[in-house]
């Protein structure tokens, strides 16, 4: 883990500061949706750290509140991180402004409403409001979504810098989760249509027939900062009406973003 | 900061691992609602670190995604922390289950709906859905609320361990934000009433006349894990009807918690 050229000392103590931080972050990265609670042994294994080192670092994270421990001694992500994460300008600030609009949409469509931002070459699901009677969700808040095979992802991709779009189109394009190969030509045409119509409509057959309709959230200056989407089961859909509702809500969010910018 | 008995070495490098982690965490703690973006100098000052050390640690946090940098080089909390925080079992897991119920309530009352958990001696606002036409909010997601002078806080306090309640009642009790002294006897009576009636109704005159109605979210086994509350302006309120709506939504959340427990 030492950087090239950094002085390396051998011993039980980590040789210098930064790798220690990386190790502490590795402890946080050891948790995922299927591992929300981890005993020390699992935590150290998943973080790739010796147990003694994991225990020492987890203790500091626990002391600060980044980790919590239950009565059985298992670690989990702590509330303090939720507090800190609430300060992320991209993401939390956006979702606070978006939530009332999402709530209105959710009340109207009784299905899923998603807010997604681009994080490098994936979409990050910032938030989802789902009706009690909605389809089983494909993605959960904090999950990463493929850009080229989700409605919100397509909107973000269509408005990403050209160079980035070219790189994506040149890569392997598989429809997730079925992993069906996609044609770059067809995708290029889809992206152009999304830019023209300011809305993406994506039909999926897997896991059930459903339609996603997504629209861009635009900040002052015209940059697309997020995508708002709804996911509804196929037979119930009037996509034109749904497109209108999603576009209106996305415009509402853009407007309050503008007021707060 | 060195642990008793730990070998201490002097030099430019931090002597051992743990303080480095504390310093990295101090960088995260340097951000707050009024300081979502910080240049390196402000960041190092607010974290109480030398600039060189702050730069080195911020670089590691940036590399991992816990911090982001804008085009002007200013740091902010990164999306990666939002991803990790989404794994906190208390908090995020809870809010995912609660959000549809909160959304329904918000659609019905057109004001604020809050979800709060106890974090030590304060309440932590996990989430808030607010109507476009709601009063200016007193608290934002990630904020800490006083337990003894908010509706949700009173519910959490009323169901906290007895020893904890005694300690709070023995302390200085000021009505926030006016800082009017509260009587411990009156508060004890209020808490007993909340336990009996399973709902808290709190009237405030500051900053405007408003009513908060809050109800407990209960997990399997009977522990109160959160409080759900609504905040509405005074003249519009039928508190009995509102109490019924909040209690019903809180029971709904408790029920799905049970299904997922």
Strand line-up in the sheet with most strands of chain A = 5-4-3-10-9-8
Give the class of chain A from helix and strand content and strand pairing: alpha+beta
For the residues shown, what is the average pLDDT of chain A?
86
CATH architecture name of the largest domain in chain A: 2-Layer Sandwich
Keywords (chains A, B): DNA-binding, Transcription, Transcription regulation
Pfam families (chains A, B): HTH_IclR, IclR_C
Protein name (chains A, B): IclR family transcriptional regulator
InterPro entries (chains A, B): GAF-like_dom_sf, HTH_MetabolicPath_Reg, Tscrpt_reg_IclR_C, Tscrpt_reg_IclR_N, WH-like_DNA-bd_sf, WH_DNA-bd_sf
Notable traits:
homodimer; 261 residues; alpha+beta; Arc Repressor Mutant, subunit A; Beta-Lactamase; 2 domains; two-stranded antiparallel ribbon; 9 helices; 10 strands; 21% strand; globular; disordered N terminus
Give the topology.
The structure is a homodimer of 261-residue chains.
Chain A: H1 17-29, H2 40-47, H3 51-64, E1 67-69, E2 75-77, H4 79-85, H5 89-109, E3 112-119, E4 122-130, E5 144-146, H6 151-158, H7 162-170, E6 174-175, E7 180-181, H8 184-197, E8 200-204, E9 210-218, E10 224-233, H9 239-260
Antiparallel strand pairs in A: 1-2, 3-4, 3-10, 4-5, 6-7, 8-9, 9-10
Helix pairs in contact in A: 1-2, 1-3, 2-3, 5-9, 6-8
